[in-house]
Amino acid sequence: xxxxxxxxxxxxxxxxxxxxxxxxxxxxxxxxxxxxxxxxxxxxxxxxxxxxxxxxxxxxxxxxxxxxxxxxxxxxxxxxxxxxxxxxxxxxxxxxxxxxxxxxxxxxxxxxxxxxxxxxxxxxxxxxxxxxxxxxxxxxxxxxxxxxxxxxxxxxxxxxxxxxxxxxxxxxxxxxxxxxxxxxxxxxxxxxxxxxxxxxxxxxxxxxxxxxxxxxxxxxxxxxxxxxxxxxxxxxxxxxxxxxxxxxxxxxxxxxxxxxxxxxxxxxxxxxxxxxxxxxxxxxxxxxxxxxxxxxxxxxxxxxxxxxxxxxxxxxxxxxxxxxxxxxxxxxxxxxxxxxxxxxxxxxxxxxxxxxxxxxxxxxxx
Length: 366
Hints:
This protein is α/β, with parallel strands linked by helices. 39% of the residues lie in helices and 12% in strands. The protein has 13 helices and 12 strands. The chain has an 8-stranded parallel sheet with strand order 4-11-10-9-8-7-6-5. The protein is globular, with a radius of gyration of 20 Å.
């Protein structure tokens, strides 16, 4: 994972060029881990296809002076309605790992959501990007362990928490299996080292490691409600695709939901997130914070998601590509390109502000 500082003049010019260069430069194992999906990759592909099939109908001759991409979300002002999505093991892509990504986020005043599976210590990442105070939790097999992880994040200065609920086990990732993906010795989830994996109680009648062992450690809605009540910070649930699950999250006091299928890396054949978004927003109402991720590759994709009711979006693979190509400079450039493209898309569609983006401007050909 050695790295040479990039020449700014040699950076990719477009977001697609970042993807092409990252894919060409990654090892087969890293391509399998960061760019492929589960199974046949149909859900991962559907996430992108949904945006490609959406049509934006612009409005003309509006007064666009003084426009801005700024939004408010969970009591915070964001310069643009997107955040860096949580993803694991940035040090596979760059020696400085999550610290490099955090520096880039800080440079562009964009929030980064740090993964519980960060390959850099919490305090180091926080010092690299103090403006990024969002943290993603995983359920660690028990209420007590998960609460302890949340408290560790709060003690480190994180103020907004996200619990991923759609990946209790890893999806069947053919590309990773074929590439024999495994972490190198010097990369690990360093912030989880203090937590002991849940122990399985031997059962003589056990027939399935999934249902007779792993299922014993998985949370229910009652566990999540308990966690929300114990935390002194807002908690969002990430991985919601069914409207009724969004409504249940709202009922138990979750601060919001993130419509997500884990980038197509868990359950293949799950619906694309863009296709699931409108029904979820309709179920919980326009004021409840609904975010989404999955398939966002261009600034106009952000506009489309906002038109369908998302308050903001999370962006993962484009960030991974920027990090792989040019470290923190690459991530910073990708963030800037995304914001520039969003501003252009807004202006060309007749929207001076995010609030001007209307539902009837977007038609889904799904």
